[in-house]
Structure formats: structure tokens, C-alpha cells
Write the C-alpha cells for this entry.
Amino acid sequence: MSENNQLYDEKRYELIVERLKNRGVELIDIAEITYSLQAPYLSNLTLEICMEHVERVIKKREAQHAILVGIELDMLAEEGKISEPLQTILMKDYGLFGVDEILALSIVNVYGSIGLTNFGYVDKNKPGIMKKLDNKVSNDGHCHTFLDDIVGAIAAAAASSVAHKYAESL
Amino acid sequence: MSENNQLYDEKRYELIVERLKNRGVELIDIAEITYSLQAPYLSNLTLEICMEHVERVIKKREAQHAILVGIELDMLAEEGKISEPLQTILMKDYGLFGVDEILALSIVNVYGSIGLTNFGYVDKNKPGIMKKLDNKVSNDGHCHTFLDDIVGAIAAAAASSVAHKYAESL
Amino acid sequence: MSENNQLYDEKRYELIVERLKNRGVELIDIAEITYSLQAPYLSNLTLEICMEHVERVIKKREAQHAILVGIELDMLAEEGKISEPLQTILMKDYGLFGVDEILALSIVNVYGSIGLTNFGYVDKNKPGIMKKLDNKVSNDGHCHTFLDDIVGAIAAAAASSVAHKYAESL
Amino acid sequence: MSENNQLYDEKRYELIVERLKNRGVELIDIAEITYSLQAPYLSNLTLEICMEHVERVIKKREAQHAILVGIELDMLAEEGKISEPLQTILMKDYGLFGVDEILALSIVNVYGSIGLTNFGYVDKNKPGIMKKLDNKVSNDGHCHTFLDDIVGAIAAAAASSVAHKYAESL
């Protein structure tokens, strides 16, 4: 049987990075959120280590699919190609719409359930790039309903990945 | 404060029913799957009762949002409006794509975790309308990557709802 | 067929309230967290309304089961009845243990995926009673590994319930 | 910083294998379920490959924690050490109790959401060892409320792991 690198899809990695960049998100922006989440617990943590784990998350097929779907929906909403009432729900980032959270959950879950807490925390606090994405929406008619949560989910998953790697065993 | 019917959005119910119909799914098709799942455990179960619970699931806002997103993605894929590689992933119903399952999970979860088993079971067995949707895809170039799982999720959630209502307390 | 109140188990409600009380948690403590989460969005929100929704969450069978299991594990750990290594994992509230989060998720999910964010937020911030539970652990040898997350999950689910009831439709 | 093998906890692996054995489950029993799930899609699949992936799942920390908690609850119930009503719920494997499914979900999720379908399928069909565990319960007063779902979840997660490794890229 021909083997692929299990769960990872490296070929698609560059495409995902490019897609995020086009939507205004650099990996370093996400790594900064991961750093802010884990630095209080790991005194020797560096931004480089966080960057490494962000990249690792984005190489996972499950994360890639969630990212592709979320960005696609944001872009189609900006182009007005979604039928109502979903078009308005997405453009207004309607508070009772939970599909963005559920999509983010599929990214977070791959690194275990400890990521849930960090995801919820940054999704509410909106540090760094997450705040910028949020403001852009109100000002310029952009739609970042999904990207917002996706960025938070990648950052939280990378934080879990760091924690699982460096935390002391019991 | 003005009150809405909690968690339910009845206004949107008709729209969702219409949208499912346009995609080839009648509520009675879903109720039949629910009936097949619960009939072995409840001797007096009728198709009417199952129909009532299918309707109840579709009145839930969480389910409505998942249904709207799933059907939208299927339709946009059929129209060729999704960018690659997602367009091909959706048209081919790529086996390692799990966003359809995660979206379905958000429907199932609203009626508790006992629905997980029934969802997985029908998603693999593809009874009734689910088989028809599957065949249509191969034959006519339709895309039912999401609708498939959504139908299974509504049927499983309705089965949970029936079980929670009629099961004996311990 | 004999009907129970769907998804609700009112008989068991009093038992759950008692069990929480014995572990140091009054419903009003949880309602205060819910209030702090939703007050910024709903100007007329009262603590009474939050209390009503906390009670509603605790009447749900899915929530009751998660609460019973979580409290049981905390108590058995305090009594030293759990076999190793789980006994130590629970007593030390080991950071990489995620079963508490996953159990909490089953409570949150019943009110839809918008609760995820609030759950993560309070799980990290530990407002009010959650902080007290946390401190008790370090000082008195109590085990609140599960109760902590359960309280946060009930508060977050009640916040979702409030949001779904009073939020404006789009 | 001292590094552990990320997400994996090999030291604890032997303990988990032993614990499963004591409860009547050999890894090969689980590998057989994985084989039955994936063989239809991969003509060169062997039981050895399935065994390898079952081992891989059991090396994951998230899976280990869920296994430890589930088996502990089953054993404490057999010993009559759980307080009511949970004691009876566990001994009777009450159908509306969903904590076993949610715990299983945390194992399945680590290999992405495609595992959901396989988990639900085997949880209903109960192939091989799962049927034996089920029968033992009725005959000998054993409690396998959690072990049942845990075995299904490990098998389904291993099937996802196989699928992600050998499936053709799109």
C-alpha cells in the first residue's frame, strides 16, 4: 500500500498559508496568541517554538479542511454569493450562529480536549490579530465570521500541542 | 425584554422545509429513518410520532444553521462556485473530509450524546432517502456531501428526542 | 405510550441541587457567573432570570448525568478510592487531563455551540465560586477537578439559554 | 525545556494494555474490529497493520485518560462503591445515559471527525468482543457500560488512523 504521511498533508500546507495571508493573517500573528496563552506556564517558551506548533497544526488534514471551508464561506459572503438568510447571518456575524464555533472545535479537538478552554478564552478576549479582524468587519464590510474563530482555534490547538510536548508528566 | 421562543425559530421553519424539499428530501423520508431506529425499542411507536419529533428538531435554531450552511455548500459546489481544492473535495465526497460529520454533530448534540450512535449507524448504512441521495451523486453530478449527513443527523436527533420522551425513567 | 417531560427529569432535580450544595455550590453562585456573562449584552437582565435558566439547565437529563459522574469522581478521589494513576491525576488536577473538559462539553452542547466560548472563558478566568473551589483544593486537600468545569459549563449553558431566548432574531 | 514525546505517553502504555486485559479485552480483539471496518476499502490491509494503529491510539494521552476513567467507573460500580442513582444507572447500562458516548467521543476526535461514523456503527452493531462484553453484563453482573464504548472508540479511531495513512490524496 502506498503510504501518506499520516494525518498530515504537507502538499496542501503552502496553499493554506497563502489563503490565510490573503485574508490578512500571518502565521506569526497566530503564534503570538499561542505564546500569550502558554508563556505563563513555561518560562523558557519562545515565539519560535510557538510558530513551529502553529505550523504543525496547519499541516493536519482535519485543520486544513476546516480552514478551507471557513475562509470559503467568508469570501462567498463578501461577494454576495450566499443565499438568504445565511448571507445576512454571515455578514452581520449573528451572535446565535454557532457553525463557526463548531468548525473551530474540529480543529481544537485534534490536540485533545484541553484546548477547549483556550479556544473559548481567546474567542471572547480577541487578542492581537483577532481584534483586528473584528474591527475590519465593522469598518470595511469584510466578513470574518469564520476566520475569527479559525485563528483562535489554530492558536488554541497549537497551545495544546506545546502543553502536551513540554508539560511535565505526572 | 422581548422574548422569543427559546432556542426555537418557528418563522424559519417553513424556509428550511422548503430548502430540504428542493434538494429532494421530504420530512417524511427523515421520519422513516427515525422510525426504523426507534421502533425496535418502542412497540407503540408510529410514523406520526416520529414526524412530530423530526419537525421539532428542524425548529431548533442550531439545527437550522447547520442545515442552511450544509445545503448552501452543496449547491455552490454544484454551480462550480467553490475555489479549489474544496470544489473537488465536495463534488467527489472525499472520504477524509470530515467537516460534514462535524456539522452533523452540532445537530445531534442538541438532543444529547446518545444520538451519536444512531448518527454513525445511519451514516454508514444509508437507509432510505440517504441511499437515494448517494446514488444521485454518482449518476447525475449532484453534490450531496453535506445533505447526506444532515439528513442522518436530523433522523438521529429525532430518535434521541423520541427516546428521551418515551423511555422509562430508571 | 407513557410520556415523560421530554429531555427533562424533574424528579432528579432536587437531588442534583442537594449534591451541588454538599460540594459547596449554590445555584445562585452559578447564576452570578451567568449574569456576568450576559449582562453586557442585555440591559434588562436580572439575576432572577439567570437563576431561572440555571435551573432549566439542571433539569436536563444530559446535564444531570454529567454532574453526577463528575461529582462522584471528585468525591471518590477525596476518599482515596480511585486506583492509580487516576487517583493522583484527579487530586492534583493535572493540566493535561481533559476528561473534565469533555464532560463539561456535553452540558454546554445541549444549548448549542455558542456556549463553547463562554465555557472556555470562565474556565480560564474562574470568576466567583469557581475561584473559591480552586483555592479550596490547594488549601484543604479537597478535589474539585470535575466540579470546577461543571459549574463553568452550567453557567455557560444557562448563558446560551438566556441568549437564545432574549436575543433579537435577525 | 525538557521534551516529552508529544501527545504520547509511552510509559503509561503498558499499564493501559494490562488494564484492558484485566477487563477481558486484548488489543487483537480491537484490531479485528478495525480490520472489519477498513478492509472493504483497502485491499492490502492486514490485521498486523490494524494492530499497529490500535497501539498508536492507546499511546495517545487523551485516549489513555478516557480509558482510565471509563474502566475505573465500571469497576467501582461492580464493587458497589458508586452512590445512587449513578450506581444503578451504570449497572443497568441505562439507555439515556450518554456519558459513555461523550467519553468515547474524546478518543475518536483525536483522529478527526471521520471516526464518528465508524464509532456509531460499531456501537450499534457490537461486533466481536463488543458483543461478548455486552453478554457478560447480562449474565454475570459485570459492568461494562463504559468499556463497551471505549473499545468501539479505540477501534474507530484506529480505523481513522489507517484511513488517513493509506487513503489516496485527492
